[in-house]
Each structure stands twice: as C-alpha cells, then as structure tokens.
Amino acid sequence: MAKQDKETYDSYEKDVYDNPPAGPMGVHRGARSAASRAMPYVIVIIVALLAGLLFWSIYSGEINNLKMPWSSQGSSTTSSAEKSKSGESKSKSQSDSASGNKTDASNADSPTDSQQNDQNADQNAGQNAEQTDNATAQQAVNTGTEVRVVNATNITGYAQSKADVLTQAGYTSVSASNPTGNVPSQTVVWYQNETDKATAENVAQTLGISNVQQSDGLVTPIVVVLLD
Questions:
Q1: Angle of CA points 109, 111, 117, to nearest 5°
Q2: Which of 52, 121, 149, 207 could disulfide-pair with 224, CB 3.0 to 4.6 Å?
C-alpha cells in the first residue's frame, strides 16, 4: 500500500486569485473617521436642543416676542392698509356731508310734501266741484221734455188721466196713446239718454211708479207704459 502524500496550499499552482488587491473588497468597508462616527450624535443633540427651545418659548410665551425677518414688512403693509382705509372713510364722510348739504339746500328750495298735497287737494276739490255742477246740470228735471204715456190696460182713458196728472205737475209736452208693439210685463218708465234720467225719475214719482229703466231705440225721450 502506497504512502499517501499530504497536500498543502503550496502544492497547488499559483493563479490570479492567489494575488488579491490591497484594501477592502466586496461587502467589506474601510475604517471610518472619528468625525463621521460622531456626526449622528451631534445631529441628535442639536435637534433635541431646538425642540427644547421651541417647547420653552411656547410654554413661556416668548414666541410671540420673536420677530421674523418678514414680520416688519407685514406690519408696514398692515399699517399702510389701515391708513388707506381710514383715508377712504374720511373722504367718504366728507362726501356724505357734502351731499347732505346739497340735499338740504334742494329741500329748502323745493316745496314740502305737505304743501304739494294741499295743492293737489285743492285741484281735486275744484275738479270734483266742476263735475258735480255738470252732473247737477245734466240731472236737472226738464218739464219741457216730451213724455208719451201708453195705455196697455183694459181701462179706457187710463193713459189720458195719467197724462193729465203730469200736465198738472208742470209738464208741457205730454201725450197719451195705445201700444203699437211688444209691451213689458209690468208698468215701467223708460228714458232715452242719461240726461233724461232725472226727468224720468220725477215722472215716475209723480205717477207713483217705482220701475225706471233706460232703453235704447225710443222715439220719445220718456215713455210711460201702464199695465194692470
């Protein structure tokens, strides 16, 4: 049995992998400096100091006294805006006072509402008086108006007797006749125009008739139709 030789590192032939380059390789890193190792601790300390300072300023109220670089500009802008607003309000008050003075002057020159109302009332009263006079003139009883009395009854001479009553009352143009067409269902006094209404009412009152109506197509201004 042959004796087995012991194989060692030197028994193999050297290649490129047996001569590695100097320094760290792969996942290995070189040693860091002291400054880089201390930097995280310094950052933590600075953040803690800032947080403590912020908490103290909020708790003590000193944060309101801190002036930021932009605070002066904001205050100046606010003050200028307030000044402009105050100037606008002053100018507005002056313009309002001026307009008030103008209004007072115009009111002093123009008549008051009560005076105008009095003038309007006087004018209306005058117009109403004129209308009343015209209405009175139109509604005056005219005994010279032609009146025709129609006998639609079976009583002979009944229309003439009523015509005589009107003549005795002062009417000067009264005639009696018999019906020539359709007759109404009850005794009535017809008048032709609105100006004859007062005369027709007087005729009806004289003869004791309560039914007075305006009718179109009448030949005589006032027609009295007598029925049973």
A1: 170
A2: 149
